[in-house]
Amino acid sequence: MIGFDNVAHDFGSGALLSELTLELTAGSFHFLTGPSGAGKSTFLKLCYGELTPTSGTVSFLGRNIAGMNRDELALMRRDIGVVHQDCQFLDHLTLAENVALPLAVSGRRIDPGELAELLGWVGLSNQAQALPPTLSGGERQRGALARAVIMSPRILLADEPSGNLDHDLSMRLLTLLVELNRLGTTVMIATHDLALIRAAKTQVSARVMRIKDRRLHPAGADL
Amino acid sequence: MSRLSTVLARLLGDTEADKVVPRSGLALWLTVFTAAAMAFLSVLALAMSLATARLADRWSGAFEGRATILISAAPEAMGVQAQRVLDILAVTPGVASAHVVDQGEMRRLLAPWFGARTPIESLPVPQLIDVEETPAGFDAAGLALRLAAEVPDAHLDDHQRWRKPLVQAAARIRLVSVLSLILIGGATAAMLTLAALASLASHARVIAVLKLIGARDAYIARAFVRRFTLRSLIGAGLGTSAGMIALATLPGASAPGGLLTGLGFSGLQWLWPLAIPPLAAIIGFWVTRTAALHRLRRGE
């Protein structure tokens, strides 16, 4: 689905990631861990084309992302759901409008029933008309997850989704991500929350990778 | 009808896309005010252009095909010389008719300067002969030479001496007015571009979110295009209305006041300013779309 072939990336001040070779296959579940600043977010941005590799190739469904034009890049992103730690909502729109935004952007009809069902799935039925700043951290994360999956993406990328959540809310979010994976969505979670990884491994067959010394390594036995 | 609605939809943009950008009150009113001020100035420049065109036509048309011969001779010789001039004119090709301006006509001509009761008879005014040309016209230089040779006290005035500079001045004023209109359009485009770029910069986070969820550049641009098009249209509508009201309150061309009257529109010319709001909207649409797409492609 997403392939990394000897990918390197640097920000000019030195290499951040190098020699990344990896294939995220359809329906798989991945964790990416490592210390803060190791390049986890950069890895995810390479996945959805926000960053272009300095060398090597990142491909989506066999196509080199760097070779896509801007419209093709936009269409690709409709197939990739992204959940950020800060959720990235538009604060002047209601939660329901934020969640439905990918449909509006792609010109698709918004089915109020399906939207209500999705909000119910993430436990936010009662907050549909709330503005994002009035929501708690957990509600915002679940809202961001609902927005990320409303287009039924092939792959879901989550960047520190439990960063602002307590243990219970993290587990609730994890349950939703595992459910999605069981429905066939490829999931990639970048996190340094080892408890989340350990909990996930009891529910799903997850591959755990660690970024260390700019390179990807299989996680140790502790994970 | 469907074509009209398609054009309107293209021009006014996407209401759904428009919703994703939060409204900013001050920027909104500044854009409307700028469009209004520019439209107001456009109406004045347009009125100036059309009025000077009318003046140029009037001045170039005045005395078109006519000339005057002035005879400044002693009173006792005046009649003989006038007859001699009439004889010459009778055989001059290109002269349709000629007649001596009588005292009644002379009184009417001089009344604006000396009053209606002036005793013309006692004033040393020259004898005037009004000459009407055929459409082909006469050889003014040849006639002047012949008059100089045969009636030295007669002088030919074909009105070119004063008419030409006035027509030239009117043409220059018209050119300046047209240039002003172009400059106003350019300044409007520049200011709307700056406002659009400022709006794009201040909504960078909104743009980042839209890109993240798969919005195409055209969709993001539409979110900004609609509001700037509408602001330009509304502002220009207000400015145009104010400009037309201001011109309507000016004295009419018939009122006494010399050249400064009649600077407004005349007849169907009042329809011309109605083109300003749609033009402003087109400028707003075009510059916002161009600025947005340019900035998005640069990845800012």
Helix content of chain B: 55-70%
Low-confidence stretches of chain A: none
Question: What is the approximate shape of chain B?
Answer: rod-shaped
Mean pLDDT of chain B: 85
Order of helices and strands of chain A: EEEHEEHEHHHEHEHEE
Determine the most extensive contact between two protein chains. Answer: A-B, 25 and 20 residues
Order of helices and strands of chain B: HHHEHEHEHEHHHH
The CATH architecture of the largest domain in chain A can be given as 3-Layer(aba) Sandwich
The count of domains of chain A is 2
The named CATH superfamily of the largest domain in chain A = P-loop containing nucleotide triphosphate hydrolases
Low-confidence stretches of chain B: none
Report, as a whole number of angstroms, the end-to-end distance of chain A.
24 Å
CATH class of the largest domain in chain A: Alpha Beta
At the fold tier of CATH, the topology name of the largest domain in chain A is Rossmann fold
**Can you count the beta strands of chain A?**
10
| Mean of residue pLDDT values of chain A | 91
Strand content of chain B: 5-15%
Oligomer: heterodimer
Overall morphology of chain A = globular
Architecture overview:
The complex is a heterodimer of chains A (223) and B (300). Chain A has helices at 40-47, 70-77, 95-105, 112-121, 137-149, 167-182, 194-201, and strands spanning 2-10, 15-24, 29-33, 55-60, 63-64, 80-83, 155-159, 186-190, 206-212, 215-218. Chain A has 223 residues and is α/β, with parallel strands linked by helices. In chain A, the strands form two sheets. Chain A has a six-stranded mixed β-sheet, sandwiched between helices. The model of chain A has no long low-confidence stretch (mean pLDDT 91). Chain B is rod-shaped, with a radius of gyration of 31 Å. The longest helix of chain B has 43 residues, at 160-202. Chain B contains ten helices and four strands. Chain B is of the alpha+beta class and 300 residues long. Chain B has helices spanning 2-12, 15-19, 25-61, 75-90, 103-114, 140-150, 160-202, 204-212, 217-248, 276-297; strands at 66-71, 95-100, 127-133, 154-157. The interface between A and B is medium-sized, with 25 and 20 residues.
